[in-house]
Structure to design on (357 residues):
């Protein structure tokens, strides 16, 4: 979103004015190739654009090669401890490699990886995590984890740039939102390279999504971030959906319908939770609804007409049932038992390309 310079990973543009990209990581071990491909198919169906896989054994190079060749989106190999695995991953066709400054084994190992990447046109993500900072990095920073994260990234990014290698994506993550935000603010003031942002080890579905929304939202709002991952202890499809919700809330990218609904109070003319589900069920029957199409479900006449009127399609409770608004214009009042019938007709009329599944 904000970086002036961009890279291309298997034809996917990252940074340099490209949309903020959504990515995830395979949770299926690479040796289960069929399982990886099934998981990958589900991620792609949700809009995932780049996926990372853990590559921990060169004996799996054949599996990695088949995964790369069978994927419709770029595969990034996630490398720890052994730089030779990065070389093997590039031989298998990976067009992006994530290396961890905390455990790659020193300058010479990184130089070896960079030379191969330079020859093959591979992108390198320098990805430091708070949990994998080594003792030397922490000691050098006096125990300041933000300073250690920044120093770990700088050590390898600066070496890349000294070599004339600029196909670099920068990443600094912690499970702490304040640590992650501060480290990225400092690094963004130093480099005009693409940034991958997220909160690592954010937690289970609900807690992790909230923590990620706060951290990623702060960074993207500050213009930091060209790819995102919402790291959850849950299925990868939830990560992708959450990422798009964050981007949609910031007005950066939309996927699917954007929903507005009131939190309800004693003035409600209808049960908003029930009617959100009913309206959603109607809208889910249609294909061809454009991304970012806004639907509002409001409980009463206090905020309902104003909020519903700002949506492409709005429903608000009334004394005699519900009112439908289309692009700010009220088109009628019906009893509640007519909801599905009325909305189906309105949706067809409002979106010419919409068809029932």
């Amino acid at each position: 979103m904000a970086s002036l310079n961009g890279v291309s990973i298997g034809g996917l543009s990252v940074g340099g004015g490209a949309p903020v990209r959504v990515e995830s990581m395979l949770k299926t071990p690479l040796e289960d190739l069929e399982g990886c491909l099934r998981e990958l198919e589900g991620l792609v169906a949700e809009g995932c654009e780049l996926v990372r896989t853990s590559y921990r054994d060169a004996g799996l190079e054949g599996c990695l090669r088949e995964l790369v060749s069978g994927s419709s989106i770029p595969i990034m190999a996630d490398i720890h401890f052994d730089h030779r695995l990065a070389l093997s991953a590039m031989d298998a066709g990976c067009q992006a490699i994530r290396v961890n400054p905390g455990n790659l084994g020193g300058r010479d190992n990184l130089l070896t990886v960079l030379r191969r990447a330079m020859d093959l046109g591979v992108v390198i993500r320098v990805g430091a995590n708070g949990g994998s900072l080594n003792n030397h990095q922490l000691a050098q920073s006096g125990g300041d984890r933000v300073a250690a994260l920044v120093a770990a990234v700088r050590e390898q990014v600066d070496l890349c740039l000294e070599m004339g290698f600029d196909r670099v994506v920068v990443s600094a993550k912690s499970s702490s939102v304040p640590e992650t935000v501060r480290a990225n603010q400092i690094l963004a003031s130093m480099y005009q390279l693409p940034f991958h942002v997220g909160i690592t080890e954010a937690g289970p579905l609900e807690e992790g999504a909230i923590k990620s929304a706060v951290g990623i939202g702060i960074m993207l709002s500050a213009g930091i971030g060209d790819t995102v991952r919402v790291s959850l202890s849950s299925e990868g499809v939830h990560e992708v959906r959450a990422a798009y919700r964050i981007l949609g809330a910031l007005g950066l990218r939309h996927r699917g319908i954007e929903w507005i609904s009131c939190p309800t109070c004693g003035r409600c003319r209808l049960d908003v939770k029930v009617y959100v589900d009913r309206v959603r069920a109607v809208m889910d029957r249609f294909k061809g609804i454009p991304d970012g199409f806004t639907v509002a479900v409001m409980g009463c006449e206090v905020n309902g007409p104003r909020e519903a009127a700002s949506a492409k399609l709005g429903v608000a409770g009334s004394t005699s049932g519900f009112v439908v608004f289309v692009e700010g214009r009220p088109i009628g009042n019906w009893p509640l038992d007519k909801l599905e019938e009325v909305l189906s007709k309105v949706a067809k009329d409002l979106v010419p390309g919409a068809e029932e599944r």
